[in-house]
Write a structure and sequence with these properties.
Layout (H helix, E strand, L loop, with lengths): L3 H11 L7 H33 L2 H20 L4 H7 L5 H25 L3 H5 L4 H8 L1 H7 L2 H10 L2 H24 L4 H22 L10 H6 L1 H29 L1 H35 L4 H28 L1 H8 L8 H16 L2 H8 L3 H22 L4 H11 L1 H12 L5 H25 L3 H4 L3 H23 L2 H14 L3
Subcellular location: Cell membrane
Membrane topology: Multi-pass membrane protein
Protein name: Polysaccharide biosynthesis protein
Length: 501
């Protein structure tokens, strides 16, 4: 009985969202998130740099083809159940149990469907090489479904330090497994087995951290009552999948595995901006915004501050990647990856736009306006698909340009999200204008400094490092000249993060 007390206490604490000491908890969560960003990005980019020298562009292309299928299944895996558990201010233990069994059943069903689809890859991609990969990768959905409720509990408790440890451990062990297998000559299978190892390790760490154990009971009426919300999450999930993977499917069919490998690695590097920065911060902000639903003034203040910080961090990284694409590709990946330079330059700008406006998703979710977000996602998806299809005959670089241009729509959607809590266009400019001005001037400074004899004489790695350092200094200086509020924001964030409970 004594052993079970901490477990039950942890679950009970998660049943009611609390706004007590919210500012400090969000600041500490943001601090752990920023630290996790640095470590995860270092691990991911470092491992990719090693794997890019051990594998071929075609290996990454085949995995990207398989990911078109598995990513869709992965997004469907929770059917929005985790978001529902996070968004509701009060939940019950029975609801947790219901969501666990529903998610597990869905994960097993998706795994079976993916296994069946693996025999149709020749029709889907014009290449049979991805079929065997899918038959192994489908197992990740079963393992992933086992920890969905645990992840929701962790988010409700806002225990971001624990989440940080789990994510770093998962990425580190997954990357190590992939590198060892690639070195031993497993080729594309090293990426597949590495992904499977990461799924298993992540689930084990999550289950051990949150000692929730489901009971054998199921509340069908509760599940049906969430249908409207979960179906909206589901609709947004499908559209998100189309937004993120339609380009991979079309490029793979049109240009082949090698070209897709170039595109996928360029996109993966820019996705670090959204996937490693914006998305983790969304997980911090979603429960925080949800707990402030009844206090609009505090919510507005929190959104403006969070938006300023997010844009100030993401803009220079996305636009900086665009600025140093010519140098970073040969240094990180090697000479065989040079065709990805123009793609990376364009997608970096896209990442800056979409990442800086990413908290709009948390606003739609926290205000329970998921159906509205769904309608805007339909429009964006239609624009994206039409743009890609129009650009396809003109080559891969034009496709990347079309995708970057479509990212402007995310700014409009962000303005709509701000309107849900009484904020307007002036607040949008307050969040985005200064970081983008500073980042664009940084881009110009890097372009000017690139060909200076004192820098071109350096080793390529040192040349890249010098450009990054000069760009960072110019960005920070211009941003501070435009507004001293940013220095105050980051100082207070650091103070809250280091402040003891």
């Amino acid at each position: 009985m004594t052993r079970s007390t901490p477990r039950h206490t942890t679950v009970r604490q998660a049943l009611i969202l609390s706004s007590r000491d919210l500012g400090s908890r969000v600041a500490r969560g943001a601090g752990f998130t920023l630290l996790g960003i640095v470590l995860r990005t270092t691990l991911t980019i470092g491992s990719m740099a090693i794997l890019a020298r051990l594998l071929t562009p075609a290996d990454f292309g085949y995995l990207a083809m398989a990911t078109v299928v598995t990513e869709f299944a992965g997004l469907l895996g929770s059917f929005g159940f985790a978001n529902i558990l996070i968004q509701r201010r009060v939940i019950t233990r029975l609801q947790l149990d219901t969501m666990f069994w529903a998610t597990l059943a869905l994960g097993c069903t998706i795994a079976a469907v993916i296994f069946a689809l693996s025999f149709l890859t020749h029709w889907l991609f014009g290449d049979e090489a991805t079929g065997p990969l899918l038959r192994v990768m489908c197992l990740t959905f079963i393992f992933g479904s086992l920890s969905t409720v645990h992840q929701a509990i962790l988010s409700r408790l806002m225990r971001f330090g624990t989440e940080f440890i789990i994510q770093i451990g998962t990425i580190g062990l997954r990357s190590a497994a992939a590198i060892i297998l690639a070195y031993l000559g497993f080729g594309v299978w090293s990426l597949v087995y590495g992904s499977l190892a990461g799924s298993i390790i992540g689930t084990l760490l999550m289950v051990s951290a949150i000692r929730y154990r489901p009971r054998l009971r199921f509340h069908r009426q509760y599940l049906l009552s969430t249908w409207k919300t979960s179906s909206s999450y589901m609709g947004n999930t499908v559209l998100y999948y189309l937004n993120m993977n339609s380009d991979l499917l079309l490029i793979g069919r049109q240009f082949g595995a090698s070209a897709l490998g170039y595109y996928q690695n360029a996109r993966s590097l820019t996705d670090e901006v959204r996937g490693r920065i914006a998305m983790p911060l969304q997980r911090v902000l979603f429960p925080a915004f949800s707990s402030l639903q009844a206090d609009q003034v505090r919510l507005q203040h929190s959104v403006l501050r969070s938006g300023r910080l997010l844009a100030a961090i993401i803009c220079p990284i996305g636009i900086g990647l665009s600025a140093v694409a010519t140098e970073i590709v040969p240094v990180l990946y090697g000479e065989q990856w040079l065709p990805m330079i123009p793609i990376l330059s364009l997608l970096g700008i896209s990442a800056a736009l979409r990442g800086s406006t990413a908290i709009g998703s948390s606003l739609f979710n926290s205000q329970n306006r998921v159906p509205l977000a769904f309608r805007y996602n339909i429009i964006y998806t239609a624009l994206l698909l039409c743009s890609i299809l129009f650009a396809m005959p003109y080559g891969l670089n034009v496709v990347a340009l079309a995708i970057a241009a479509n990212s402007l729509f995310s700014v409009f959607v962000f303005r709509v999200a701000l309107g849900l809590i009484g904020l307007g266009t002036s607040h949008l400019l307050h969040i985005l204008a200064r970081p983008f001005i500073a980042a664009l001037l940084m881009w110009a400074a890097i372009a000017f400094l690139r060909n200076l004899p004192i820098l071109t004489a350096l080793h390529p790695g040192m040349h890249l490092g010098a450009l990054i350092a000069c760009g960072a200094i110019s960005y920070a200086s211009v941003l501070h000249l435009l507004s001293r509020q940013y220095l105050q924001d980051f100082t207070e964030l650091a103070a809250r993060f280091t402040k003891r409970r």
